[in-house]
Amino acid sequence: MEAGHGPESQAAVGGSLGASLCASGASWPCAGHLVVGCTLRRLVPGRCGRAKACLAGSGGELRTVEPLEYYRRFLKENCRPDGRELGEFRTTTVNIGSITTADGSALVKFGNTTVICGVKAELATPTEDSANKGYIVPNVELPSLCSPRFRSGPPGEEAQAASQFIADVIENSQIIEKEDLCIANGKLVWVLYCDIICMDYDGNLLDASAFALLAALKNVQLPSVTINEETGLSEVNFKQKNPLMIRKHPVATSFAIFDDTLLIVDPNAEEEDLATGTVTVVTDEEDRLCSVHKPGGSPLTGAKLQDCISRAITRQREVKKLIDKVINSIKPK
To answer: Residue 333 and residue 316: Cα distance in Å, rounded?
Structure first.
């Protein structure tokens, strides 16, 4: 494996859920394979041919006039217009440490969706009722440059919902114990400002944002801080830095629901618009269900929800394996 150069390292993985693909005898690498400095793509034999056959029989005008019917023709063949199968993720790329001015950062790409997360750490005085706890403040931004659907100005409804989702993931998954951010009880704690900015929007914002947050937090290095007993002032040693204590590794996996029954993973923007509902499942490395986010739409049966959870558990293992490898690749030898 080639080592990364400079303060950053990159890896990519793509493919569908389930261990069956890795054992299918195909020639592509299994999910979780690390490639530094390039993108890993997986070509599924026969899949593209089925998609082209559907496309040839659909007619380009149908996509504009009847987009849902256009999609149904593909879904009947267990494929999608972009060539993916229903349970297949877009190629996923992660680049860690790309913002040198941040205390930790990561850039994540899901196909054409690109999200970057930067973490800035500041010192603050804790509140009286949480004297031994620090703070984590997430914020998701959807600037007008990332998609024509967004406008400049105050955060829109989708950005606010995404920020709340990330805040819930942090709280429910216990990714970081807030007590670990305490420097001196009742006197000094760390505040982590996690700014997540969508640079290019093509659906599945929640998965990409959660992924970027986890990778950025894994990249954070905090300087050593002590309080001078004589002066009562804080003293920061920038030469001695320590990583954050990451307790859990939550990963979000989103599904779009078509015609109230059919589930597809990692929906792009067009698929989200045509879907009758979406659901996002968050799991950790202990196969623990951290949260289920379902903003209305078609209901899910217990069996369908269990299927989503099982697929999310598999995806979590792939993502954690990918992050661990890229983190290890940039550690000093």
So the answer is: 28
Residue 69 clears pLDDT 80, i.e. is over it: yes
DSSP class per residue in 234-253: EEEEEEEEEE-------EEE
Q: d(Cα 105, Cα 118) in Å, to the nearest integer?
A: 4
Task: Note the pLDDT of residue 260.
Answer: 85
* Distance of alpha carbon 162 from alpha carbon 112, whole angstroms: 18
List the alpha helices (DSSP H) in the chain. Answer: 47-58, 60-65, 67-75, 157-173, 205-219, 269-274, 302-329
pTM beyond cutoff 0.90:
no
**What CA–CA distance (Å, rounded) separates 218 from 21?**
29
CA–CA distance, 10 with 40 (Å, rounded to integer)? 11
Give the model's pLDDT for residue 234: 83
- Contacts with 87 (C-beta within 8 Å, 6 or more apart), sequence order: 16, 17, 18, 264, 265, 311
Residue 55 to residue 71: CA distance in whole angstroms: 10
Q: Which residue has the tokens 């920038």?
A: 238
